[in-house]
Specification:
With about 400 residues, the protein is of the alpha/beta class. The chain is about 30% helix and about 25% strand. Helix 6 packs parallel to helix 7. The structure holds pyridoxal-5'-phosphate.
Amino acid sequence: MLNISHLNATQSDTYQHLDTPFLCVNKQTFLKNLDHLRTRTEALGASLRPHFKTVRAAEALQYLLTDKSSPITVSTVKEAEALMDAGYTDVIYAVGISAAKLPRIKKLLNRGQNIRVLADTPEQAEQVNRFCEENHCSVPVLLEVDCDGHRGGVRPKDPKLIEIAQALHSGAADFKGVLAHAGESYHCLTTETLREAAANEVRAVLEAVTRLQAANIPCEIVSTGSTPTAHHYENLQGVTEVRAGVYGFFDLVMTGIGICDLNQIAATVVATVIGHNHEKGWVFVDAGWMALSGDRGTAKQPHDCGYGLVSDEAGQLLEGMQVSTVNQEHGIITMTNGRTLEPENFPVGSRLNILPNHACATAAMHSQYHVFDTQAETHEVWNRIQGW
Ligand SMILES: Cc1ncc(COP(=O)(O)O)c(C=O)c1O
């Protein structure tokens, strides 16, 4: 059996009295995950710009960032606004900008936040320039570079790279540099392919920077990152910063890729057994997709974890057990290794922990997280910032 370093449930009255399902964060594990990547990134000479999209709770900022001027990434303007309210000022909004969001960006700039937006089309460059001219402001913009064909961005050799950057640089906007996200790295399964994805992400941004510099367009920010590549860079010369989000909580997808092991997963869903189907050998818990999310991120991995693996309250992985089906508020736990699940071993009212496939999706289903520190024996409640 694998030991998942979880809180010792029996030690905490608070834990026992919480109604289920709830998202439980093991604070010591979370802090170790944060510290590991920060140390690794800084040793390579770049700064870490955590992505707030996974945790999205103001209470977590004191752990994610060193101080109020530390760099952070967001995936919604709502997160940037919450950061401004909490006094954090160095932000990249890393989803392609739409014109309708620019007034909110301007408000943040006026309030003193150093927020930059992302673009990868000539239309976006034109819209930002026009907005800046009409509103007498200068919105800082990064150009997204496509390093692996995963999603958006401009290929480093694409003539649009210079076209978009030049439009922003010479227009009313403020061109700040380049950003790449190696989304294809989530499909890598070996150290060699992960290292190659990491090196390729760096190569792509550096090629873009070289071409931009040759066109007399300076790049102040050179930003790369995803959790898989962030853990596999070997050389970050020329890169100013690394972004990663899921590395704080980790999850089964990251375990499947080989970025972490099960006992580094810091967030689990605590559920109560609410019934059995003895004929079928099923155990029902009160955590369906509303608590776990419907994410099936491990489906294409060699080890498909269903909707999550299962551990007992003490954190022992129950080998072979997984949440195989989810309804809105029901999770159905079955055995997947050919053995028989004995429902009587999981009495009604007992509790189980579900390890999530994708921590970003599972955390998004919870308005609050319960954070337990196994060393200090403290309990914190983190409130998730909802909406866009
Ligand atoms: C632009 C960008 N940067 C960084 C990240 C962080 O990656 P991860 O979730 O692997 O930590 C993401 C994730 O979606 C992203 O879209």
